[in-house]
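To: structure subgroup
Subject: Chain for Friday's discussion

All,

I'm putting the inputs and outputs inline so they're searchable in the archive.
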Amino acid sequence: MLQRIQTLYLLAATILMLLMLFLPLAEIATEQATIYTVLSKGWYIMEGETAELAMATWPVFILALVLAILTFINIFLYKTRKLQIRICIYSIILAFGMIGILYYYFVIGFRQLDEPAYALRFPVVVPAITIILIYLAFRGIRKDEILIKSLDRLR
């Protein structure tokens, strides 16, 4: 049944992960007037109209894409609630992994630049919001499973 509340939670998590793929994660301005734009694909040096790749972050892009696809597919698995619960747990683990990878790339990048002026953007907190949304969907799916089992006992 697609009209359940957990469908909305999973859909919101999917949309947030897709936004994370294309929106800038951070911007860093150096003393030499160089601006670095951090995307999920990499750190880019913006010089006028051109953008040069400074550091590739493909694992962040791939993990965000896999997480978006996994949560979207999970919406349509409403007939197999046990599988849906497992996929929710795996998605939460992947989202924690994404937080770790983002932290790793930010620490590596900030150490290389040694610049204190940076501005983090909204997509940096998307994995944490996604964890909360997937957990809420997990709770709804689990409640449905418990309700179905209790109805089977009454028959």
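Points worth raising on Friday:
The two ends are 22 Å apart (CA to CA).
The helical segments are 5-22, 58-75, 81-113, 126-154.

D.
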